[in-house]
Amino acid sequence: MTDIKQAGQKLQGQVQDAAHTATRHAAPGLEALARVGYASKGIVYGMLGFLALSVALGQGGATTDTKGALIRLDDLPGGQVLMWLLVLGLLGYALWQLLRAALDPEHHGTKPGALLKRTGYTLSGGANIALAIFAARVASRGSISHSQNGTANAASTVLHIPGGQFLLGLVGVALFALAGSQLYTAYGAKFMKRMAFTDIGAKYQDTLKRVGQLGIASRGVLSAIIGGFLLVAAWRDSAGTVVGVSGALTWLRGQPAGNFLLAAVALGTLCYGAWCGVQAMYRRIRVDG
Predict the structure, then answer these.
(1) Which domain covers residue 93, as residue numbers?
(2) Where are the alpha helices (DSSP H) in the chain?
(3) Model's pTM, two decimal places?
(4) What is the mean pLDDT of each run of 10 residues along the chain (289 residues)?
């Protein structure tokens, strides 16, 4: 039994060494792809924030999610070319997230908190692959319908499996934990340690830090709202109350001083898009572990 365990550990080490070696050789290209990924993500969230701000200012339109933002981007002049570039960028960002999860190039380690964070990178990678596939469908078909009820439909599916209420509640709790982490990160500006502002003065660095804080905090607010609706749905055993990003923005508008709240989160989302662009240029990216 000991020999089998040692052989398994040796094989695992060889696989990891091979993965690190292959990644190290491809590092310059992977880093460039990751930077294009951050820029692509910034464009999507910038459009998302712009659309929400237009609603808050009474300019018409409707709030939407990232898929809806892609559809609106496709409507712009040269939208189809932009869409294919976004497909490449979103896949690049997904690959970067998966590398962060698997090879741990930022040396988070294997403690429970670090493993939870790396699991989040894996989920982020999967979500961005799905978004890239959607963008490819939009680019290839020219137009595509999109339902804003995808989150509710997914929640309904979960509720119909054994233990679905408990699982849905866990997702809600996880989103609350994510929201807390995002707000804490924004407050402490912990993201700055990943940046390399070598050619920017302290005054401009402080401005960029504020942009990042506002952007990440707005994501925390949206995560908390979505998580809250998931917990209510789990308690009531009904997916009808579940909302996604679009629904969370619409809910904000329906509150007292709703247009102000929506405008604040919309501006924060615009800041997040801008911060993604800043990361594309200045983030320290190691892909070789």
Answers:
(1) 26-147
(2) 2-25, 27-56, 66-74, 79-103, 112-141, 150-159, 164-188, 202-236, 245-253, 258-282
(3) 0.86
(4) 52 50 60 93 97 92 90 92 95 92 83 85 93 93 72 86 92 92 93 88 91 97 95 90 91 94 97 96 81
